[in-house]
Amino acid sequence: MAAKDYIRERFFPHLWCPGCGHGTVLNALLRAVESLGIGKNEIVMVSGIGCSSRISGYLDFHTLHTLHGRALAFATGVKLSRPELNLIVPMGDGDALAIGGNHFIHAARRNIDITALVLNNRIYGMTGGQYSPLSGAGVLATTAPYRNIDRSFDVIKIAEAAGATFVARSTTYHARELAKIIKQAIEHKGFSLVEVMSQCPTYFGRKNQQGGALEMLQLFKEQTASIGSKAMQEHPEIIGRGVFVNKKAPEYCQEYEAIVARATSA
Amino acid sequence: MAGVNKTVAGVNKFVQGNEACVEGALYAGLTFFAGYPITPSSEIAELLSVRLPKNRCCFIQMEDEIASICAIIGASLAGNKVMTATSGPGFSLMQEGLGYGIMAEVPCVIVNVMRGGPSTGLPTGPSQGDVNQARWGTHGDHAIVALTASNHQDIFHITVEAFNIAETYRTPVVLLFDEVLGHMRERIVVPKPGELPLVDRLKTEVKQGVDYHPYLPREDGRLPMSDFGGVHRYNVTGLFHDMWGFPTNSPQVVHGLLRHLTDKIENNINAITHYKEHCLDDAEVVMISYGSSARSALHVVANRRSRGERIGLLELQTLWPFPAELVREKCAQAKRVVVVEMNMGQILGAVKQAVAKPDRVTLANRIDGQFITPTDIRNILRLIQGRGV
Amino acid sequence: MSQEQKVKHLCNVQWCKGCGICVMICPQKVLALDDLGKVKVVNQDQCNNCKLCEFICPDLAIEVVVTGQ
ipTM of the assembly? Predict the structure, then answer.
């Protein structure tokens, strides 16, 4: 199946702004699913609320467009009851880490086999440019007219600390790498978290004088480096890209099978 | 938590109300429960954590009540009969999810074992203070089904009925019990399989490759479903949506969908209404009560009748949609209507609206966290009748 | 690619929003934006079929196909 077979063509062109990175994430996701050859009936995409979460409407899977911040909780219900299905949960940075933070850390803690994508554009785009937990101190936003004092946290460290067994980061500039990482994340048995740095030229870029999509993508190129690369050693403040965590741990649905075995043998 | 064996049909069981609810849910075909510990409903989760794995079904304790209702909605869409259980504070957290279940027309059962409120209130004290929250807790115009019962055999039956209504109308159903019912023990007899009619998940017969509309009702109003993972791929959203489940804000579709969501419940009040009546035929004083309060009201009927007083009880098992016609009819001859509930009069207004002479309706209640006793009701009746306590 | 094989860009100008990301990313400067701001192939023969434009396009508006053997 070509990537195009996975989309709901009748809804294109999509609603994201010109140059918005979320379209590239959609593109990379299609490549990953295509390369894995997963049947469309075997994928349930559960998204939250916000620009990022409209992605589910454009994909010809079983799609569940849920409540702001709650996608992972809905997805847990689907996955635990139908472990054979592939659960992909795209969320925004605010969606996953602000209102959805509690569900994020607990889904990771359970290590339930769900692929979580955090489309991090460091802003609440759908609602018009407010700052999010990942905006970073000092940035401007419609709710940070005097510069943001909220420090942001490192999604990678949080996911690992919470128990996620596959944790990676990429950007919309590195589209090929992103597709490869999403593929690995889907294949991984356990909670996979992929943070995608995705440009929002309309709000974050404009509010913070970072220019349009092209300039923001250049920043992604210059401000990130592959983990373990020479650039990383020389510039410790640079943002790492690649797979940070890839380990084995009991997967929740398999552990639940063990409960059923114990309960039915007793 | 005593080990609990499989349901043995026909056997007497001396159980808590919470357990009667569990037995009813299992009888109805529950396959997925998600919940969060909260007094006084935790026993429901504990019992199901034992029973569901034995049936190769899913039990999960989520990180909070919001996650719990979201998880059961996800599981319902994957083809399960689902339930969660909580109390006031958790029920408040579940409201947005409840609204999502209404909009996306997802069958699910939400048990609220009420306790003293508001806020943390009285975790181990009875109250019926969430009745109006069950009706209007979630935002926006909508309809809701809320059922209750006053004894454990009825709890069993009304729980089965909750699942049947949820499947029939593809809607969330709220079960309102309270701490007294939840924790007191009483005898139940578990019916044999097949004895009670069950409504199973209505699955679409549309074949693969043929266009399936998840939100297009059939002539009979039913909405056949297709499980996630099945051959039909569609969208489910909390946004107003078209018959394929895709977001729309077209005025006609919005108006039509909102009208459908409310009519499917409000037009079937008779089918959804469950009630019991005691000595109403010649009653001059009609008590209207529900849940555990109805136990004391029933006691008052027996006690007063033995003294020749013409008093009767209408016990509502369906609170929402409010059975106004039934109430009007049953109170037509009454000289006085007394609403008995453990709150500050949460169905009082609905009763006054329903009856022909609202000025004859008064409230007999108790709001101090103690169970309303027959003596409480009798004293209030005497005051109403001007005879003093 | 052998000589006979030719690369073609299938550009969907309805979906293209003229963001110019493909133009920027192309190592061979094959693409440009026309006067309506839509993607246009300007140096077809320079294309080395790396498909970066197809991969990064946020609007799925480009498909690079190889024709011939």
Answer: 0.96
Same domain, B283 and B256: no
Q: Indicate whether B6 and B120 sit together in one domain.
A: yes
A3-265, what's its fold?
Rossmann fold (3.40.50)
Question: pLDDT of A35-69, one tens digit each?
Answer: 999 999 999 999 999 999 999 999 999 999 999 99
A265 touches chain B (CB under 8 A): no
pLDDT given for residue A2 in this prediction: 80
CB contact under 8 A, C52 and A172: no
Q: Which residues of A touch C56 (CB under 8 A)?
A: 24, 27, 172-173, 175
Assign A86 to helix, strand or coil: strand
Out of B272, B305, B327, a domain closes at: B272
Domain assignment of residue B294, given as a range: 276-387
Chain A residue with minimal CA distance to B247? Answer: A57
Question: Do residues B84 and B183 both lie within one domain?
Answer: yes
Best to test chain A binding among C21, C38, C39 (most A CBs inside 10 Å): C21
pTM: 0.96
Domain-ending residue, one of B272, B288, B317:
B272
The domain locations on chain A are 3-265
pLDDT single digits (tens) C21-36:
999 999 999 999 999 9
CB-CB under 8 Å, A16 with C60: no
Provide the shortest C-alpha distance from residue A254 to chain C (in Å). Answer: 35
- Taking the C-alpha atoms of residue B167 and residue B200, their distance in angstroms, rounded to an integer, is 7
